[in-house]
Amino acid sequence: MEEQLDVFKRNLEAFALKYKKDINKNPEFRRQFQIMCQSIGVDPLASKKGFWSELLGVGDFYYHLAVQIVEVCLRTRGSNGGLIELSELKRHLEKKRKGEGGISDDDIERAIKKLKELGEGFDIFTVGSTKMVQSVPCELNSDHTAVLALAQGTNFVTSSLVQRKLGWNPQRIATALDLLLQEGMAWIDDQAEERERRYYFPSLMTAK
């Protein structure tokens, strides 16, 4: 078994050398290469320095992408509170990376996974069918994601809407909304026609 793995690793190295340009420039090719690596327990992102980094620059690619992700998230944090749709983050990155080759959602998720391991407050979670990127060290639970899911489509919720749709008591509603407000992930609108406070989520609005 070990001999077979060694042979496969050598073949993988030969493949990587032959298709180095494609791996670095083509997002889908890069994703397939990652899958091949994982199948034999090889992590080309394990270190920025080392064999794979020297051979392909793969480690450097994700390191550079991670730095760009941090830059975009810091720049947009004032408007979205550190919460941004993955698709919106990708649009910002593509503008920033003009001429550097394409990137995929998979590339972004792998780079964020490395940031998460460093304890930088980054995480990815799903709201409905939408992937959200969190860039602040805040513990969001299922109540917060349920509120965000409820806000999809309208970009806002009210306490009465949450109570009606989710069946929560006032204390549970206040606890969830207060944290989102505290972290800057929600904005208050007290000028609504129905005179009930609305809680808007800029991360959902900017993604349109």
Automatic annotation (TrEMBL):
GO (cellular component) term, any one: ESCRT II complex
GO biological process terms held by the UniProt record: protein transport to vacuole involved in ubiquitin-dependent protein catabolic process via the multivesicular body sorting pathway
Compartment annotation: Cytoplasm; Endosome membrane
InterPro entries linked to this entry: ESCRT-2_cplx_Snf8, Snf8/Vps36, WH-like_DNA-bd_sf, WH_DNA-bd_sf
Organism: Acanthamoeba castellanii (strain ATCC 30010 / Neff)
Residues passing through the membrane, by range: none
Major localization listed first in the record, in broad terms: cytoplasm
Membrane topology: Peripheral membrane protein
Pfam families: EAP30
Family: Belongs to the SNF8 family.
Protein name: ELL complex EAP30 subunit
Keywords (A to Z) from UniProt: Cytoplasm, Endosome, Membrane, Protein transport, Transport
SUPFAM superfamilies: Winged helix' DNA-binding domain
